Amino acid sequence: MGSLKMTGKAPCAALPESSCAYLLQELKMIWDEVGQEENERERILQELEQECQEVYRRKVNSANMSRIQLHQALAESEAEFTNLLLSLGERSFPGRVSFSSQRPYCIIKLRKTART
């Protein structure tokens, strides 16, 4: 993640009020108005950057945990499906369910075998 930089420009009307760039510009204007010292500005900007990185890390960790749980649920469902097939006397097993990013449905490929 890039570091936060201050520019000498005033807030731009094109920036949405909720954007980080707008808020950073507003903070700079306040600092200019109250005479905030440069070393204090840098310290605060470093804190902001660290807090942003921490928030992103938490979000990435959360998304990763969700992905792990999804993979675990999928593995459990595949095992349950295999057990159902075994209980029905199937001797062959289906291929893994594949999801296409272009189609919103899944395809299950089955291998057909002759029953004895």
Task: Summarize the structure in short.
The protein has about 120 residues and is mainly α.
Protein topology:
Blueprint (H helix, E strand, L loop, with lengths): L19 H15 L3 H50 L10 E2 L6 E2 L9
Antiparallel strand pairs: 1-2
Radius of gyration: 27 Å
How many structural domains in the coordinates?
A: 2
DSSP helical segment count: 2
Please give the order of strands in the largest beta sheet: 1-2
**What does the main sheet amount to?**
2 strands, antiparallel
Structural class: mainly alpha
Give the overall shape: rod-shaped
Low-confidence stretches: 100-116
Strand content is under 5%
**Mean pLDDT level:** 78
Strands, total number: 2
Order of helices and strands: HHEE
Separation of the first and last Cα atoms:
62 Å
Q: Kindly state the percentage of residues in helix.
A: 55-70%
What would your notes on this structure say?
By secondary structure, this protein is mostly helical. It has two domains: 30 residues; 71 residues, no CATH class. It contains two helices and two strands; from the N terminus they run ααββ. Strand 1 and strand 2 form a beta hairpin. The chain starts with 19 loop residues before the first helix and ends in a 9-residue tail after the last strand.
